[in-house]
Amino acid sequence: MNITALCSLAALENLPDASIDAMVSILPRDVSPVSQQDLGLLFNEDQRLASAGPRSPVPWRTCARVLKPGGHALVATPSGDMDVIGMALRLAKFEIRDAILVETASVHVPVLLARTQLATKSLIENIRHHGAGALNIAATRVLPTDDEVILGIAEPEGRWPTNLVHDGSPAVENAMRERRRGPSKARFFTSLVADSVADRPATALARHLLRLAVPPGGVVLDPFAATDLVGHAAASLGVRAVLVRR
Which of the two residues, 49 and 177, has the higher pLDDT score? Predict the structure, then answer.
């Protein structure tokens, strides 16, 4: 295990190009609102607003430089900022590939799934030359339910990881129940409660995102590591991490 802590995004300039395998960041929810005027400046890539953090394309452009071609970025955003941060990522030349919704008893958290541009026309060739471009499906499959096993319809390796992730709380279980006493549909989706090592859903989410995005033996970057969630998750999984703590 190796954790490297940097004091500012400017320190990323010292990292060589294409030296990071993946990026995972869980942004804090208590972000101040942005005015319409400031949004215009952000989308015009005004350098004066580089301090706007994840809403500006400036820091994401630095991250894109150090990520390998095809490197994935998983960014958990405040729900009200998903569109703004998504646009910032696109302006930084990331490709938005998908999104994951995290359901907890108290909050809904969207996670943007983006990827840097491939260096080759073929994804297979990109993976062969750069070791990046694919998600780690095998490590994040959903285990079959007891009903599927009994009926003999369970997939031996488990189901494809879902775009809906939940914390396994009674509130979420009940919300996904068709009948008052019937089984909850929550069992068909990725549950963070199964991660017994994590002490809270946010840490379990970080571990899930790391398993999904970081290839075996890879290095992950968290450019906004104020909460240290990704750092703790990386340490528990033995993943090398570069954390920017500001």
Answer: 177
CA gap 186, 23 in Å, rounded: 28
DSSP state of 71: E
Q: Where are the beta strands (DSSP E) in 203-246?
A: 219-222, 240-244
Do 231 and 3 contact (CB within 8 A), yes or no? yes
- Distance separating alpha carbons of residues 104 and 32, to the nearest angstrom: 22
Q: What is the per-residue pLDDT across 86-123, written as a single tens digit (0 to 9) for each?
A: 999 999 999 999 999 999 888 889 999 999 999 999 99
CATH of the domain at 29: 3.40.50.150
Alpha-carbon distance of 131 to 133, in angstroms, equals 7
Give me the domain span that covers residue 78: 3-244
Q: How many domains does the chain have?
A: 1
Q: Which range (6-10, 144-148, 213-217, 227-231) has the least confidence?
A: 144-148
